[in-house]
């Protein structure tokens, strides 16, 4: 059993906590990557897509 493994998918709540912004800021941003719908109320986001989005929008 491996401990401290990095997750590949995160929920919007987890991403908002990591990035320090509100869920609505991420949810209603048209450039933010689209999530994967797991069920009617559960959507997850691929962390590699989120990281590439953040890199492309980083202010220099």
Automatic annotation (TrEMBL):
Protein name, UniProt field: Uncharacterized protein
Species, as recorded: Frischella perrara
